[in-house]
Amino acid sequence: MAYSGQVIDNPVSGERFVFHRTAGDTGGELLAFELTLDPDGHVPGGHVHPVQEERFEVVRGTMRFRKGLRSVVATAGDTVVVPPGTYHKFSNVGDEPAVVRVQVTPALRMEQLFETAVALAKEGRTLPTGMPRPLDLALFMREFEQEVRAAFAPEVVRAVMAPLAWLGQRRGLADRYRVARRPAVTHPGAGRPSGTRPSPARPPTRPRPRQRRAA
Alpha-carbon torsion 30, 34, 39, 41, what sign? Predict the structure, then answer.
């Protein structure tokens, strides 16, 4: 589980993430982190967040953002906002590391997405661009479909990825995504400890013998 102050490094894409406010800290409303990109560092691939907004505030360095059909160069003090459903990608185009403050709303499972991408890179399961290899990519896209989707024809991409995800699962590549899930809450307060103590159980009452009437 991600925590405030956690640092993770992607050795392939040149990204470093430092979590400041996690989903657990904000009740799922926000994920805030500092992103450091090495010179020539980049997000592994262009993508879309279906329901999340991303806000990038450049603290140091020079960044290039592709946002829809537009290309934006941002330097220290500039802020770039990417609305939900907008294709985007970014890279460090300067000669020094770039530092960017990022906010994602709502948080959803972006922390786990970043952790998984870094783990795949460290295990050698990515391409030189940082994108996961085909079987891993299919499983990754299936697992995090609420957080990220393909930029174009997502339904077609999902149909193409389905058999690859099946094959990847057969090879045991989906084991990393198995997490314990809590029982579903069926009514308010279910699964939470009661604030009152249960009363002690009473012993069962025995039926009283019937008295016979005198004739």
Answer: negative
Instruction: Give CA–CA dist 87/67, Å, rounded.
Output: 6
Structure tokens at 53: 């907004």
Beta bridge partners of 58: 100
Asked if residue 39 has a cis previous peptide bond (ω within 30° of 0), the answer is: no
- E-assigned strands of 93-145? 98-105
- Domains: count for the chain: 1
pTM assigned to the model: 0.80
Q: Within 13 A of 27's CA, how many CA atoms are on the CB side?
A: 0
Residue 132 DSSP label:
B
Segments forming the whole domain that contains residue 104: 7-170
Residue 211 lies in a domain: no
Query: pLDDT under 70 in the chain at which residues?
Result: 179-215
Structure tokens at 24: 């657990």
Domain assignment present for residue 203? The answer is: no
How far apart CA 91 and CA 67 sit, in angstroms, is: 12
